[in-house]
Amino acid sequence: MHDVLIVIDMQKDFIDGSLGTKEAISIVPGVKNKIEVYQNANKKIIFTRDTHDVDYLSSFEGQHLPVEHCIKGSLGWQIYESIWQSVRNDADITIIDKPTFGYTKWRDILDPLKITSMEICGLCTDICVISNILILRALYPNMDMCVDATCCAGVTVTKHKAALEVMRSCQVEVI
Ligand SMILES: [Zn+2]
User: Fold this and answer.
1) Residue 79 backbone dihedrals phi, psi, to 5 degrees
2) What's the pLDDT tens digit per position in 101-154?
3) How do beta strands 117-123 and 4-8 pair?
4) Of 10, 52, 71, 104, which sits most exposed with the smallest number of CB within 10 A?
5) Ligand 1 centroid vs 48 CA: distance in angstroms?
6) Which of 71, 92, 95 is nearest to 7 (CA)?
7) How far apart (Å, rounded) are the C-alpha atoms in residues 36 and 41?
8) Where along the chain do its domains lie?
9) What is the CATH number assigned to the segment(s) 4-50+77-174?
10) pLDDT-based confidence at 156, cuts 50/70/90?
11) pLDDT band, very low/low/confident/very high, at 165 (cuts 50, 70, 90)
12) Are 172 and 117 contacting, i.e. CB atoms less than 8 angstroms apart?
């Protein structure tokens, strides 16, 4: 158990929507279970949402990945329904809408919490999970950081494993 659980982009479009994969679907029960554990311990849970505008396809990301996804306000942008249903009303949660892979204002949220450890899970291992982990590692060189490999999925299985190796290199505990 760590001080905070960060759940990256567990949104419909990445699970069974426009960019969904069977690997992403398969991690849903594990992520729900993790949310349950942190809630029961009254720990803070931070959700991120990949968030694009309707002009996504003309953006840099859209030109390199021409598949519309996570358009703000759309069904695919929502946190996956069964995951959201497992969040209790009294849970200590924060939701971050981020326009690109890595969120750059983590300190605004995390500094006031005075935490020493964090666990990160979600999608996709080789894009948004690792982007945020490396930003967090740069901001918090002494933070005890942990990733549960069974609660992440990559664009492909090979890329998922490669990203986990890079995380290990950057002193993130991979369980
Ligand atoms: Zn995106």
Assistant:
1) -60, 140
2) 999 999 999 999 999 999 999 999 999 999 999 999 999 999 999 999 999 999
3) parallel
4) 104
5) 12
6) 95
7) 9
8) 4-50+77-174
9) 3.40.50.850
10) very high
11) very high
12) no
Nearest Cα neighbor of 31 from 18, 47, 49 is 47
**Sole residue written with tokens 């329904």:** 81
Structure tokens at 33: 């279970």
Gap from CA of 101 to ligand 1 centroid (Å):
7
C-alpha 127 – ligand 1 centre gap (Å): 9
Distance 61 CA to ligand 1 centre (A): 7
What local confidence, expressed as pLDDT, does residue 75 receive? Answer: 98
Q: How confident is the model at residue 97 (pLDDT cuts 50, 70, 90)?
A: very high
Measured CA to CA, the distance from residue 37 to residue 121 in angstroms comes to 14
DSSP-derived secondary structure letter, 72: T
**Cβ distance 149 to 165 under 8 Å?**
no
